[in-house]
Amino acid sequence: MSSSGHGMMLRSLSRDTSVKYQKLKPGTMRRIASFATPYKWWIVVFLVTVVLDAVLTVSMPLILRRLFDQGIAPGKRTVVVVLALLIGFIAILDAVVTTFGRWYSVRIGEGLIYDLRTQVFAHVQRQPIAFFVRSQTGALISRLNSDVIGAQQAFTGTLSNVVSNGVSLALVLSAMFYLSWQVTAVSLVIVPLFILPSKWIGKHLQRLTRLAMNLNAELSSAMAERFNVSGALLVALFGSEAREHEFFKSRARKVADTGIKTAMLNRYFINSLTLIASVATAITYGLGGSLVISKAITLGTLMALTALLGRLYGPLTALSNVRVEVMTALVSFERVFEILDLKPLISDRPSAREIPNVPGKVEFRNVSFTYPSAQEVSLASLESIAKPESMPTGPVLENISFVVEPGTMTALVGPSGAGKTTLATLLPRLYDVSSGEIMIDGVDVRDATLESLRNAVGMVMQDAHLFHDSILANLRYAKPDATIEEIAEACKAAQIWSLITSLPDGLGTVVGDRGHRLSGGEKQRIAIARLLLKAPSMIVLDEATAHLDSENEALVQEALKAALAKRTSVVIAHRLSTVREADQILVISDGRIAEQGVHEELLAAGGLYSDLYHRQFADR
Ligand SMILES: Nc1ncnc2c1ncn2[C@@H]1O[C@H](COP(=O)(O)OP(=O)(O)OP(=O)(O)O)[C@@H](O)[C@H]1O
Ligand SMILES: [Mg+2]
């Protein structure tokens, strides 16, 4: 018997029927076909096994009929034995065929999941930072997973369902009509009785399924947001455990209630189907029995008819919902394609060339920048799960021009929100300028390959990220084949080696989630060591805003000296010592360069810099 059991039917019934009215983009079918092409022959073999299974299943009642009419009734023992053996043999053959078919369907399905997953991962990774700023990670991941799996089901689940149920239905119906059109006609009259409860229950199941999905999503995002160090800290500091618990309990209760309702609805459904099937069998026996008595049909025919009847209603109910099933699968495919079609805002130009990893001359020419809008970086269907946020539409940077000579350090200072971090992210092309250009040794960064650019330009962010892994693994992220000696050297230069050796597990110490095991200063020094291992010739550094004690400050200062020596650097300075050593200071205010010069000059000028200096640095 084919795999369209009650479970499959119920799953298909709980699907959202609104997809039926969704329009597919032109070309979707062709693209799906192109994904299927590598599996062409496997699909053919699989479909052959599906059809074979249907044929074997329908042939059993027909052999049963012979066994009755030509074996038992005339009392021929050999015929009985031979046909009984044949039935046994067919059962074995069917088992072999379905196992074989499963082997192929599983390989097609898993192969397809593999293809889609790896492509989607590679593609999402190429998206600009702006894309990730908008997307809510948990929701994005679950969307990608469920769509990929949904798309795979289009092939194995839906395809085999449609083919096997279609073929079974055709075979069963023709066999039944051949045996007795009267009995068949009567049993078809009952068909609406099957369709009606499945429509009714299907509607409720859809509602419950959607409710359960939303509730589960709420539960898991509540857990994901609270069961990490930052979230847990917030809950603990605000003493809101009881409130959180109540929230969680109320949602979990609803999930439980929904589960009970769904299970009972499923049971009603199965019971009503079984009940109607029994009624149908009773009618067939009643009608068929009197036909046998009046010698219109044989007893064997009646036995075959009742056996076939059991194989009629399953495929019928399954096929009644087939449009929803097929569309759900196609829409999943389409959503995967939608992601694959999202053009990364930042990518190599066709004419892009490699730039060398040498300390070059960095030049900003009339650079203006506005953060990209939602439409440019995200997808309509992802927006529903993106946290709604209103983006400032105005320019963040305007007409910025300056030159950083090779091997020198330029410090950026300015009030919070002035645009310093934004300015810094433009150099390694985390974002592209809106107008103007940024040149490295005369080459527009947009004409360089991203790989060579990111090799040459290193960046340490304000809040450096560390993976939840050992210190060693975090350092090797910059250079997977770094030897322990190289690592020790980088750590010594970054003034973090003595701390690492003092830890019981040394380099094997696991830093907590998002680096929470370490202090702010320690984290930045590890990030600097990581940068030293990567050895870029140009460095962008966003100093941690966290105030450090003077001992820590001295260590970070030493680390910075090592990092910046003989390199072209742009440092967003929050420390006086950094500013003092800069070859050039740019004061950024409201997205513009307000002042430019060296420390003494700017201090003497008595403008914004001297204000900032007195407020921010002088007391330290
Ligand atoms: N991804 C983003 N999308 C839209 N606007 C942003 C984004 N990131 C920052 N901004 C806005 O750009 C402006 C400049 O931010 P930026 O982070 O560059 O300031 P900053 O000078 O580094 O400040 P701080 O000294 O506090 O780090 C701010 O008004 C900020 O709200
Ligand atoms: Mg900043």
Protein traits:
single chain, 620 residues, alpha/beta, ABC transporter transmembrane region fold, Rossmann fold, six-stranded mixed β-sheet, four-stranded antiparallel β-sheet, 25 helices, 10 strands, 63% helix, elongated, disordered N terminus, binds adenosine-5'-triphosphate, binds magnesium ion
Q: Name the CATH homologous superfamily of the domain at 406-435 and 449-617.
A: P-loop containing nucleotide triphosphate hydrolases
Strand ordering within the main sheet: 6-7-8-3-9-10
So how many helices?
A: 25
- What is the general shape? elongated
CATH architectural group of the domain at 406-435 and 449-617? 3-Layer(aba) Sandwich
Number of DSSP E strands: 10
Describe the sheet with the most strands.
6 strands, mixed
The residue fraction in helices comes out at: 55-70%
Write the CATH fold name of the domain at 406-435 and 449-617.
Rossmann fold
Any chance you could write out the topology, listing elements then pairs?
Blueprint: H1 6-13, H2 28-36, H3 40-72, H4 77-125, H5 129-134, H6 137-179, H7 181-189, H8 191-226, H9 229-237, H10 241-293, H11 299-309, H12 313-320, H13 322-341, E1 362-369, H14 374-377, H15 380-383, E2 397-404, E3 409-413, H16 420-426, E4 435-440, E5 443-444, H17 450-456, E6 457-460, H18 471-476, H19 484-493, H20 497-502, H21 520-534, E7 538-542, H22 550-564, E8 568-572, H23 576-581, E9 584-589, E10 592-597, H24 599-605, H25 608-617
Parallel strand pairs: 3-8, 3-9, 6-7, 7-8
Antiparallel strand pairs: 1-2, 1-4, 4-5, 9-10
Helix pairs in contact: 3-4, 3-6, 3-11, 4-6, 6-7, 6-11, 6-12, 6-13, 8-10, 8-12, 10-11, 19-21, 21-22
The site of magnesium ion (MG) has 4 residues, from helix 16.
